[in-house]
Design a protein that fits this description.
β8 and β9 form a beta hairpin. The chain starts with a helix and ends with a strand. By secondary structure, the chain is α/β, with parallel strands linked by helices. It contains 6 helices and 12 strands.
């Protein structure tokens, strides 16, 4: 009997199930971080606004200038740029105003170097000839009058006898005319003729009269062949130089009129 009870007890123990239990979950409270993010963004924006507008961080402290020969232009660039906020500088508008104020500038570029340096690279116009009408002006390679000057004594001046008024910024002639004019001076110099002055007396400016140190003139047509006219002049100088008293006119191809 005892043996039977013992077996039944062992059988009951084998049927027991042991389960591992978990402690009750603690309810987690979620924190809303969105207001904090907004606050951080506002602080950063405020800091950026302060740095940009109320500190000297982005105020131009140095202006590097390249290609400028005129002290006036150099001083103007420094005066008008130093102290300005580099972030709000409008290079296109500034350079347009600069070119209008100084027509001698052929081109200009601006490079901004953060946080406070500006580099300005310019090219000044170069004098190709001196044109005198009612006043005298330097003319660049494109034919524009870019600077009023006093009549020089050491350069060959082109005199417009029609005295048409011109002003700085006007285009008074074309590059082809300038090339013809300069080539003629070089060619006559190689022929042993010294040109002292040149003159135009027609609105078209085709006829150019070159005055020589020998007291007579060479008359050419700037719209005709340069090579043919210079060849004709050389032949006249070789064969009939002593016959020229007032002028040699080369405007008709194949002919030279002497007086």
């Amino acid at each position: 009997m005892r043996s039977k009870n013992r077996l039944e007890g062992e059988s009951l123990r084998r049927r027991e199930v042991f389960l591992k239990t978990q402690p009750p979950e603690v309810e987690r409270r979620q924190i809303n971080l969105r207001p904090l993010k907004y606050a951080v963004y506002l602080i950063l924006l405020g800091l950026l606004f302060y740095v940009v507008f109320y500190t000297p961080t982005f105020k131009i402290k140095e202006v590097r200038i390249e290609g400028v020969k005129s002290i006036e232009i150099s001083d103007y660039l420094k005066t008008t740029l130093i102290g300005k906020n580099i972030l709000f500088l409008r290079p296109g508008t500034y350079l347009d105003d600069l070119a209008e104020k100084f027509p001698i500038l052929e081109e200009a570029r601006m490079i901004r170097g953060l946080p406070a340096t500006v580099r300005v690279i310019v090219a000044e116009r170069r004098q190709q000839l001196v044109w005198c009408s009612d006043k005298c002006f330097d003319i660049d390679s494109s034919g524009y009058a870019y600077q009023e000057i006093e009549r020089p004594n050491d350069k060959i001046v082109l005199v417009d006898s029609t005295r048409l008024p011109i002003k700085v910024g006007d285009r008074v002639t074309l590059p082809s005319f300038i090339k013809f004019f300069l080539d003629t001076i070089d060619a006559t110099d190689k022929m042993g003729l010294k040109v002292t002055e040149a003159q135009i007396d027609e609105v078209t400016a085709y006829k150019i009269t070159f005055k020589t140190s020998e007291g007579w003139n060479v008359i050419v047509d700037s719209s005709a062949s340069f090579a043919n006219q210079m060849s004709a002049l050389q032949q006249v100088l070789d064969k009939n130089r002593s016959d020229i008293k007032e002028y040699v006119d080369l405007r008709v191809e194949g002919l030279a009129f002497l007086k």
